[in-house]
Amino acid sequence: MYRYDEFDERLVRERVAQFASQVARRIDGSLTDAEFLPLRLKNGLYLQLHSYMLRIAIPYGTLHARQLRQLARIADEYDRGYGHFTTRTNLQFNWSKLKDVPTVLGLLADVEMHCIQTSGNCIRNVTADQFAGVAYDEIEDPRPIAELIRQWSTLHPEFEWLGRKFKIAVSGATHDRAVVKSHDLGVRIVRDAKSGAAGYEILVGGGLGRTPLAAQVLREFLPREDLLAYLEATLRVYNLDGRRDNKYKARIKILVHEIGIEAFRALVEEEFARIDKARVNADPQEQARIAAYFAPPAYQDLPEVSRKLEEAQIRDPELARFVEHNLFRHKRRGYTAVTISLKPIGGTPGDMSSEQMRVVADLAEKYSFDELRVTHAQNLVLPYVRLDDVAEVYAALKAHDLATANVGQITDIIACPGLDYCSLATARSIPIAQALSKHFADPEKQKEIGEVSIKISGCINACGHHHVGNIGILGLEKKGVESYQITIGGDPSETYALGELLGPGLPAEYVPEAIDKVIAVYLAERQQGETFIEAYRRLGLDPFKAAFKEIADVVA
Amino acid sequence: MLLLDREGAKADVWTRVETLDLTADNVIVALAQLRDALAARRPGQHIGAAIDNTERAAALEPFFRELALIVIAFPTGYNGRGLSIARQLRERGFVGALRASGPLVSDQFPHALACGFDEIELPDDSAKRQPVEQWLDAAQRISVTYQRGYSYGAVTNILEQRRAARLAGVGNNV
Ligand code: HEM
Ligand code: SF4
Question: At what angle do helices A284-292 and B158-167 cross, to 10 degrees?
C-alpha cells in the first residue's frame, strides 16, 4: 500500500490548517456564506437534513488496519459510533459538528487520510476495482496509476473550480468491476495489440443522475508516460468549453453529448499536441517509485486447494455458503479475496459500527497483510486471505454480525442515504432496502434466484446507481407521497446498460411484491445456467412488464 | 477596486476605456477594439486587452508581442474558466502581465498565480472583507504542489523534489 512521504504529509497538514483558517474567516465575516460554501465542500463537509456530514476519501478504496481503527475512534468520539460506506468508496459520518471538524481532519492526517475534494466542483476521489492487485483477470494492478492520479488531481490549481464535479475511475482487469462507464473519465489498462505494451484506453462522458449516459472511447491507446498530459488536455477542454449556464447541464457528459465524441476528441487531441509533455508528465522513475509500494505481499507457496477449508465446509454448511458467495478467485494459488458483506438482513446497506471496524482491522492485520478494500457495492474486502484461514476469519466475522453470505445475491442491495439523511432526497431508500432484504432473507431462496443486483436511489441524482442495477429502484415524490419507479436490465460491468422502466411508480409497500413478480418471470422462463440479466437480455422487457402490470393495476 | 500581486497592494497605472480613447499612457481596450488600438499606438504607449472568459487564447495569439497586459474577467469566484485561459496564454508564449478581474476569494490566489496570473483586481465589496494580508497568507499557506509546470514563487514542486532526492541518491524508495 502507498505510504505518505514527507511531502504528502506536509500537504495534508497544511490543508487542515487552511481549512481552520477558512472557518475562522467565515466566522469573522471575511468570507460570505456563499464564498465559504465551495471551500467547505472541497473539504468534504456537507449540510444534510439533520446535521453536517463529513465525507472522508478512501482513495481507490484501499485502507490499512490502522486507518480503519482511526475511523472507529472518530466514530466514537466525534460521531454516533458508526460510519457509512458509499458507492464512491468514501466513508461518511452523518452527525458531524462544525467545531469538531478541524480536529477530526487532524486525526485523519495522523493516519494519512483526508477529506480533500470529496465534494465540490473539482476532481473527486479516484475509484478502482476493489480486487486491484489480486484479481485473476488482471492485466496490471491499477492502483499505481490511481495513486498517481490522486496526487496529480489533489489541489490542482487549474481544475479546482470546474463547472461541475469530475469523477475518475480506473480498472486494470478484463472484467469491469469499477463501473468505469458511469464516470466522467475512465482509464482502462489495456495491451497494445501490436507491441504488447501496456497503456491506457481513455473513456469520457459517462454519468448517472438525471441524464444517464455511458462513457465513450476518447483514446483507444495512450502510452503510459503521457497519462498526466492527456488528463490535463481533457480537463482543460472541459474547463473551457463545458456549460456553465445551467448546473444540470454542466457535467462533461453533456458537452460530449452536445458536440459529439469526434468533435470533443479533436479538441482534446489539439490541446494535447500543444502541451509541453516533458514539463507536465511524471517521469518514469516517479511512476516506478509509486508502483513499488504496490508490490505483491510476501505470499507463501501454498497448494491450490485447502484441505482444511474443504473439511470445515463439510462440517458447517453455513461456512460452505459463505465460501460459495463471498470468496473471489485470487491470482495467487492458495489465497482468496474475502468480501465482508455490510448487508446484514434488515440492516442499512454500507453502515458499520465502530466495534465492527475494530474487529475487521484486527482481521486485516492478522490474515490479510494489513490491508482492506472498500467496494462500490458498499462492502469491504480482505484481499489476501489464505484459504487455510478462511474458516477462522469467518468465525470472527460471524461473532460480529459480519458474515452474511450474500455477496452478489439479491439481498446485497446498494442504497443511498435517501430521505433519512439527505436534503436532496425525494423519498427514503434505506427502509426499502431493509424491507427487500427481509423479504428475500431465506438463503435457499436467494440461492435459487442467484446473481442479481438491486440498486436504490432516493432521488434522480442516482447516488445509489439505480440506472445500472439489474433491478433499479428510484424514489420520487408524487403529490406528497413517496413513489418508487422500477427499472430492469441495468448492468454496471463491461456489458454496460441502463435499465428500462417497467411502468408507473408504486407506493413503498408494493415494492417487494413487484420485485417478486419480476423474479417469478425470471425463474419461470430462465434456461439452464442463465442469470437474471442474461435471461432479461434474451426475453426483453415485455414479459416483465406484463407481470408488473398486475401490481400496477391493483395500485391504480 | 483593489489591485494586488504577490508583493501586496499596488497602484493601477492602467486606464480602462470603453471607446477607442487612447489619451492615457497605458490603455486597456476590449478585444473588439484591439486591432485598431494597436494600429493607433504611440511610441512608448502600452496597450492591454480585456477579455471575457468565453474568449479563447487563440484569439489573442497574433498580438502576443505587442500586448503588455491581458485582463481576464471572472464573472464569479467559482467560475474557474479564466484559469485555463491563463494557462493556455502562458503555454502559447504570452510573456506580458496577466490580470484576473472579479470577485475571487483569497484562497484562490495560489491557483491564479500557478496558472500564470500576476495580479488580481478585486471589486470593493470583496476587498473590504478580504484585506491584502489574507491574500499574502493564502499565497503561501500550502507550500508544496504535485503539479509539474505550475510552479511559482515560494511553492515547492513535490515531483521535482523527489527527482532531486533520487539523483542525490537519498530517495526514499519504499
Ligand atoms: C449529502 C448527500 C449527497 C448529496 C447532496 C449528493 C448529491 C449528488 C448530486 C446532486 C448528484 C447528481 C450529479 C449530477 O447529475 O451531475 C449525485 C450523483 C452521485 N452521487 Fe451523490 N450526493 C450525496 C450523497 C452520496 C452518497 C451517500 C453516495 C454514495 C452512496 C453518492 C454517490 C454518487 C454517485 C455514484 C452519483 C452518480 C454518478 C454521477 O453521475 O456522478 N452521493 N450526488
Ligand atoms: S440519490 Fe438523491 S437522495 Fe440519494 S444520496 Fe443522492 S442526492 Fe441524496
Answer: 90
